Amino acid sequence: MRKGAKRKAASQKQEESHKPAPKPKRAKSSKPQPEPEYFEDKRNLEDLWKAAFPVGTEWDQLDSVYQFNWNFSNLEDAFEEGGKLYGKKVYLFGCTEPQLVPYKEENKVVCIPVIVAVESPFPPSDKIGINSVQREAEEIVPMKQMKMDWVPYIPLENRDNQVDRLKSQIFILSCTQRRVALKQMKIDRLKKYEYCLPYFYQPLKEDELEQSTEVQIIFPAEPKPVFCEFDWELDELDEFTDKLIEEDELDKDQKDAFKDFVKEKVREAKKANRQAREARKKALEEMSEETKAAFENMRFYKFYPVQTPDTPDVSNVKAPFINRYYGKAHEIF
């Protein structure tokens, strides 16, 4: 063996003799396993009430509608076997009712969501009414003008099945207006959404407006407009005008102009009533017996949230009235 090789072998032995002994491996301590989490299964129609757009609600109030975890299990149960809406074709729309209700030992004004269900073989209407105290005239416009339409609602368990999607029996009034685009919208257009009411015309029943003899008067006087209601059957125009002057609601110099204004409004209202009666008569003449039967059997149901420990108590504010077009619900829940 060469001398260099001997020295190398000797140095390796020396290094090995100085190496520290390997430490014994410590047994791994087992980490405590976290408790398994259990999530409650989602109900099949759990998001139905949220899917229906709350028509006529102010945009800045929408978030307050959803601040509570409202429970509409009564609406869901209505679609189950034995329920009021089981197997029926139904059209749903939402609305809100601001009410003073008890919540956590105090009274609070709350925007209560309400769902109206219309049992009908066809859409109850394709129009929206736009009306308010501030607006001089009522507008009836196509839903699509306000980016609203009836769309099928698909229960959770059917959302992956294209065939079931096409067989939907539940339709909701939906709105595709994006909230992010509201900043660019003109004020008048924006306000129209707040004055929207789902429209319904019942051709088999004379409309209240056809029978009405009252006109809303908004007379553009100075220094402030005159707001009043004039009934052309019960009120005498001269006496009505003199009373407004006595109450300092109208200036004496504007008496004749006011009377002419009222007469014109009365003529317009009578003409509108006459046209409405003629239109209803014509619609009835052209209507099939099947459609007549559908209108006769159409039913309106109004659903309020079910009482829970986490939500305000709305049991004392339930009312059958829906709106001026639909009138009262046949049943409330």
From TrEMBL:
Renumbered residue ranges of the record's region Disordered: 1-41
Domain of life of the organism encoding this protein: Eukaryota
Keywords assigned: Coiled coil
Feature: compositional bias, Basic residues: 1-10, 20-29
Coiled coil: 259-293
Keyword Coiled coil among record annotations: yes
PANTHER family the UniProt entry points to: PROTEIN HEAT INTOLERANT 4-RELATED (PTHR33704:SF1)
Protein name as annotated: Protein HEAT INTOLERANT 4-like
Native source species: Hibiscus sabdariffa (roselle)
